[in-house]
Amino acid sequence: MLVCVVNVSEGRDPAVLRAIADACGTSLVDVHADADHHRSVFTLAGPGARDAEAAARHLAAAVAEHVSIVGHAGVHPRFGSLDVVPFVSLGGTDSEAQIATMAARGFARWWAESRAVPVFMYDDADPGGRDLPHARLHAFRSRAPDFGPDQPHPTLGATAVGARRPLAAVNCLLVNSDVVVARRIARSIREKDGGLPGVRALAFEIESDERAQVSLNISNLVRTSVEDACLTVRDLAREAGTDVAAIELVGLLPRADLDRCSDDFLAWSRLDVDCAVEARVGRGPRWLPDPDAESQPG
């Protein structure tokens, strides 16, 4: 199954989010909006091999119509309005990985040519295998776009498009607002600083909850499970005199990775079978933004 997990730099305007969601059609299986990050994640999936790719183009067109990067303010780093577009081979086979790579490169070329947006490829879609952090660090500095113009679009900015195996995005919300502790935990757990394999981590201050957050991307679920990562954050938090108040899954998980979790962890984290991508295909998202709700303040 081909999945596309689109990150959009808009998390506060319900009418805009609903317009984007409506553009995705029946391939939309999950929407996760975060006002503090000012960011939303739209998960698109099958059942057809090319359904996610077609839905991603409809979503991108809606973003171009409704979202501008001008004046954007949120705690999460971003390239542009249509920020990150990874195509994911859920089954993990070589043939599926090749389909994901072809879909990513076709989407990137279309987006760059139709909207004059510079695009940076990453992971399997990049011939050099460079990852997303590399693109964020080097874009427009030591690295030119792979498609499109060499300057950001005035309202849409730039976009990173990739092809990859499944990853888990998880936010661990601490019981207090000590972002210094959150940064120390993030540094301890991230792979590049000697932490867990395949883990990237950032720390944020979440003003709406008056709490600090450790935000994880677990890119190697074979070596580091969601349970391992979250419990490590909990252990480090307790060592620092605090604790994890809540676990927030951003998007969905493959069923196989959810099945690896213990019953105790599932009860503590409040993750369930409905968090699996496979459980959502054909059923639609669990939540859709209410276009009549008031926008959240920036």
Describe the structure.
It is a single chain. The chain is α+β, with helices and mostly antiparallel strands and 298 residues long. It has helices at 14-23, 51-66, 94-115, 132-138, 179-189, 226-239, 255-259, 263-269, 277-280; strands spanning 2-8, 28-34, 39-45, 82-89, 119-123, 159-164, 168-174, 199-206, 211-218, 244-250. The chain has 2 domains: 2-164, Formiminotransferase, N-terminal subdomain (Formiminotransferase-cyclodeaminase, Chain B, domain 1, 2-Layer Sandwich), CATH 3.30.990.10; 168-280, 2-Layer Sandwich (Alpha-Beta Plaits), CATH 3.30.70. Helices cover 32% and strands 23% of the residues.
Short characterization:
The chain is of the alpha+beta class. The protein has helices at 14-23, 51-66, 94-115, 132-138, 179-189, 226-239, 255-259, 263-269, 277-280; strands at residues 2-8, 28-34, 39-45, 82-89, 119-123, 159-164, 168-174, 199-206, 211-218, 244-250. The protein has two domains: 2-164, Formiminotransferase, N-terminal subdomain (Formiminotransferase-cyclodeaminase, Chain B, domain 1), CATH 3.30.990; 168-280, Alpha-Beta Plaits.
Question: What descriptive keywords fit this protein?
Answer:
Alpha-Beta Plaits, 9 helices, 298 residues, four-stranded antiparallel beta sheet, Formiminotransferase-cyclodeaminase, Chain B, domain 1
Number of distinct helices: 9
CATH classification, class level of the largest domain: Alpha Beta
Binned strand content:
15-25%
Q: Name the CATH homologous superfamily of the largest domain.
A: Formiminotransferase, N-terminal subdomain
Number of strands: 10
Q: Can you list the strand order of the major beta sheet?
A: 2-3-1-4-6-5
- Number of individual domains: 2
Order of helices and strands: EHEEHEHEHEEHEEHEHHH
CATH topology grouping of the largest domain = Formiminotransferase-cyclodeaminase, Chain B, domain 1
CATH architecture identity of the largest domain: 2-Layer Sandwich
**Averaged pLDDT, please?**
92
Rg over alpha carbons: 18 Å
